[in-house]
Each structure stands twice: as structure tokens, then as C-alpha cells.
Amino acid sequence: MRYRRLPDRPVEAMHAHFERHAYHPHSHDTYSFGLTEFGAQEFGCRGEHRTSAAGMVMAFNPDEPHDGRAATEQGFTYRIVHVGPELVAELLTDRADRAVGLPLFAEPVLHDPVLAGALGRLHGALTGDASTLARDEALADTVAALVRRGTRGAGAAQAVRTGRTELLTARRARAALDAGYPSDLGADELAAAAGCSRFAVYRAFRAAYGISPSDYQRQLRLRAARRMIAAGRPVAEAATEAGFADQAHLNRWFRRSYGITPGVYRLAGA
After folding, report:
1. C-alpha to C-alpha distance for 112 and 22, rounded to whole angstroms
2. Residue 56 burial (CB < 10 Å; 0-12/13-18/19+)?
3. How far, in Å, CA of 103 to CA of 147, rounded?
4. How far, in Å, are 106, 150, 164, 199, 220 from residue 142 at the CA level?
């Protein structure tokens, strides 16, 4: 497994082979574009079972929950690029094919040889010795191609099948988790913030965001730890300040969610 984080762009890239590793359900605050090179991986996303075999492209929208595991004993090899939504918006500015608002990918698995080739070239530019200009050109070309061939306009996104009351409950709970970080808010505190029972908060949150409140709280901590580690903070210090019990606790969830250890992530920016 190799991991690269660009120091001057909200872009990260990984090339990995997994056989027994299984991703815990998680999401990224970025767009994530994957290319399966060997074998097949299966994952749950949007309430359905998905499979990406060799040559297929995966496209995850920001905050889209998914898991992942090998579909065969031989495992799978894949490349994945994470691109911050602010950079995607910048890359699409003034393009004729720019959608209204940020783009949404209609399907998480795309069988498209053109996109597979573009994504492979982008990953090579990001992880090789390409110049900054060449990396930016590859990013612009690949993101534009992905948007043209695999997205729908933000205004055409399917409405979340949640009543207005339930959606308001979920938003209040999420706002409380955001405001309360890194404190360890409990179910009773979330229920008080949302104005309903603990069980209603859980059901509404799952319906609106696809993950539980506790999973979302863990994601806040993981993302904070990633930012601190990328900024050069010691892993043990980042673990404590992000709200984890200790470094081992962070290591366990970091690997389950991202496929790498915090130490590998720290070295990726060196």
C-alpha cells in the first residue's frame, strides 16, 4: 500500500492491495474516485450491495457512507483519489458543462473505459514525479470527464425520503454533534438538543445521513485527527485532542475507516 497527500492541494491518493481487510462503514468529506485494477471488491452504498471488478470506476459523493471488502479470496488491487469539494468547484468554474451547484454522482460504480483510463493517468500524475502544472491539468481534465459522463445536476438529486419533522430532528442532532465536538455527547444530550426521544433521533439520523450518530461523531474525530497529523502533530497528541481514548484507539479506527495507519498517513506528506 502506498499513500500520497499533496501539501498544497486538498488531494490524496492511495494505491493498495487488500485481501482480508474490511472497511468499517464510513464516509469522506471529499469526492472519492476509485479504479479497481485487479480482482473485485464489494461494498454497501445507498442501501444496495455493489461490486466493482477490474476496470470499473467508483465515484463517491462527499459524506456518502460506504464500507468495503474483497469479493474473492485473491483480494483486490485499486487506486483511489480523494478531492476536496472546494477544489472540484474551482476546477469546474467557467466550464460549459458545469452543473448548477456541486455535482452528484448518480451511481457509485461506473463501467466506463474512458473514465478508467483518465483516472489511472490522474493517479499516476499525483503519485509520480509530474510537475505541479501537470498535476493540475490532469485533475481538471479528469474531474471534467467524470462530471460529463457520470453525474446529475445537484438540483436533480433524489429527495431524501424523510418527513420534514424527521429531517429537522436529524439536522438538530448533527448540529449538536458539530458544536459539541470533541466532547462525548450522549444519547440523552442529543435527544434534548433535537427535542425528541433517543430512539427517534437515531432513526431520523440514519434515515437522513445513512449512518448512526455515533458513527458521525467518530468521523468528526477521525477527520480532526487527519488534519492534525497532516499539519505535523504527533499521532499520540492528535489522538487525545481529537477525542480518542488513546493512540491505539485512533489506530484501530483509522485503519478500519481509511485502510492505513496514522503513521503511514503522516509519512505520506513527507
Report:
1. 26
2. buried
3. 7
4. 17, 12, 37, 43, 29
Q: What is the pLDDT of residues 141-198, one digit of tens each?
A: 899 899 888 876 543 333 334 478 888 999 999 999 999 888 888 888 888 999 888 8
- Assign residue 234 a region (left: φ > 0; alpha: ψ between -120 and 50; beta: otherwise): beta
Dihedral Cα 117, 3, 213, 194, nearest 10 deg: -80
Instruction: Assign domain 164-268 one CATH number from 1.10.10.60, 3.40.50.300, 1.10.10.10, 3.40.50.970.
Output: 1.10.10.60
Q: Decide if 103 contacts 62 (C-beta within 8 A).
A: no
Which residues of the chain does CATH 2.60.120.280 include? 2-156
Q: How far does CA 223 lie from the centroid of its chain? A: 10
- To which H or E segment does residue 180 belong? helix 164-180
Q: Which of 65-74, 88-97, 137-146 has the highest mean pLDDT?
A: 65-74
Instruction: Please tell me the class of the 2-156 domain.
Output: mainly beta
**Residues carrying CATH 1.10.10.60, the chain:** 164-268
Q: What is the DSSP letter of 27?
A: -
| Overall pTM surpassing 0.70 (yes/no) | yes
| DSSP letters for 190-209 | HHHHHTS-HHHHHHHHHHHH
Smallest CA-to-CA distance from 64 within 101, 89, 30 is with: 30
